[in-house]
Write a structure and sequence with these properties.
There is one protein chain. The longest helix is centred in the C-terminal third of the chain and has 15 residues, at 212-226. The chain has an 18-stranded mixed β-sheet that branches. The protein has 2 domains: 5-122 and 262-271, Diaminopimelate Epimerase, Chain A, domain 1 (Roll); 125-260, Diaminopimelate Epimerase, Chain A, domain 1. It is an alpha+beta fold. It is built from 4 helices and 18 strands.
């Protein structure tokens, strides 16, 4: 059997880690979901929160595709988008100001420096500010918004000892969000300019150290429901801090940007 060597770059966006592959020449097998299941496994493989592919585009600098560790393909990923932007700039696929396709629409990115990337998000939709979800004997008040992928946001006074994975898993699979499911964000207010965030991510099926689209969703809902003003700082479980910019006019959400850290971990080769 012929073996194929595939180059990759391991990158981290605020604690979310990704395997980035240039697939513009179709170097990968057709069953990309199987590949992501294998390569994202921690301890026995490379390990990551997702595989991000750079592919050809007819209407932008390139197309971004992202596959979760469970093999599902996500519509969008804020941290993955920022990582792939830096990757594409370093590989001379795109310039400092770029545009790329995602399943959630076109994303515009700006390379501020080698450690900070800013992206303009697609317009959020599906806003629901006052939902109630029954979990066991408890009824939780929450909000919902799609910032490229679906997010359910719950405000809590303290999140340090919260059972994020237990509660998050139940909400992620709740019939209210079937069949696609939802990501779940737990938010605590620090002050008028800063919020704390912990996220349960579908596809990963666990709490992650940070979530870009979740940071955006949480900041927007904090603006709508708590009166917080842009720009907002989002403090993630990794300790990394995002800056979220947005404009709200009569509950219409405009000009949404996500800015935060990106780091290259290492480069390598895996064999198919």
């Amino acid at each position: 059997m012929l073996k194929k060597k595939i180059k990759f770059l391991k990158m981290s966006g605020g604690g979310n880690d990704f395997i980035i592959i240039d697939n513009r020449k179709d170097v990968l097998p057709k069953k990309k979901s199987f590949l992501s299941k294998q390569i994202c496994l921690r301890k026995i493989s490379v390990g990551a929160d997702g595989v991000v592919l750079v592919e050809k585009s007819r209407s932008a600098d390139f197309k971004m595709r992202i596959f979760n560790p469970d093999g599902s393909e996500a519509e969008m990923c804020g941290n993955g988008a920022r990582c792939v932007a830096l990757f594409s700039y370093k590989e001379k696929i795109a310039k400092k100001n770029m545009c790329f396709e995602t399943k959630a629409g076109k994303i515009y990115a700006q390379i501020i420096n080698d450690k900070k990337i800013k992206i303009k998000m697609s317009k959020p939709f599906g806003l629901e500010k006052n939902l109630k979800i029954k979990i066991g004997n408890k009824t939780l008040k929450c909000s919902f918004i799609n910032t490229g992928v679906p997010h359910t946001i719950i405000f809590t006074p303290r999140i340090e000892n919260l059972e994020v994975e237990n509660i998050g898993r139940q909400i992620r699979w709740h019939k209210m969000f079937a069949p696609e499911g939802t990501n779940v964000d737990f938010v605590s207010l620090k002050d008028k300019s800063n919020i704390y965030l912990r996220t349960y991510e579908r596809g990963v099926e666990a709490e992650t150290l940070s979530c870009g689209t979740g940071s955006v969703a949480s900041a927007i809902i904090a603006g709508l429901k708590k009166g917080l003003k842009s720009p907002l700082k989002v403090i993630t479980q990794s300790g990394e801090i995002y800056t979220i910019y947005f404009r709200i006019e009569k509950e219409e959400i405009k000009e949404v940007y996500l800015e935060g850290p990106v780091a290259v971990s290492y480069e390598g080769i895996f064999i198919i």
